[in-house]
Amino acid sequence: MEISPAKKLRIGWFTFTCCEDSTVIFTEIMNDHFETWRKILDIRHARVLQTKNVLDELDVAFVEGAINSDEQESRLKEIRAKSKRLVAIGACACTGMPSAQRNAFPPELKDKIQFLLDRFHQGERVKKLDEVVTVDDRVPGCPMTESAFLAALEKMLKEFEIPLPEKEPETSEKNV
Q: Does residue 164 sit within a domain?
């Protein structure tokens, strides 16, 4: 019989303006960590993983992407309000780039793309996360650096006093 820890880390994974490469890395990392993570993580929101998502009280929100509109800014503020900690994931979330390239466009280029910005209700500027909300930790890279993500996750597990389950002894085919 499997014994679950009394408490799991309640997390959400959210994506804004970016190429979602860190989301791909996150799902790939799960290939190696699924058995452990299912015992210690309560994934409350992750559209890439499940259709039934809730945004209620989270311990940690992992947020990928830059903020590109008033609607995204409002959504990020809602996520922050419902999260004890927020971790910026990837270059766009941490620095705004490359999504924020248009912030530096010369006026003539901005004029050429204005119809697209208007059509899709985009903001005047693209913002990194900490221009909108408090960010507690950062995982850099485009895509995110796997080891930095694992270190950030481990840091959050320690902060919220979620113990890692004991590793089960490996069995070799000879012993089976």
A: no
Which sign, positive or negative, has the C-alpha torsion 36, 89, 71, 74? positive
Global pTM reads: 0.89
Residues 144-172: b if buried by 16+ CB within 10 A, e if exposed: bbbeebeebbeebbeebebeebeeeeeee
**pLDDT tens digits, 89-144:** 999 999 999 999 999 999 999 999 999 999 999 999 999 999 999 999 999 999 99
Q: 140 in helix, strand or coil?
A: coil
Amino acid at position 131, single letter: E
φ/ψ of 168, rounded to 5, equals -75, 145
Look-up of token digits 């979620």: 162
Q: What are phi and psi of 41, to 5 degrees?
A: -115, 135
Strands 41-46 and 58-64 come out as unpaired
Residue 3 inside a domain? The answer is: no
Domain holding 114, by residue range, is: 9-159
Counting the structural domains of the chain, the total is 1
Q: Is residue 115 one of the residues assigned to a domain?
A: yes
pLDDT digits (tens, 9 = 90+) for 23-33: 999 999 999 99
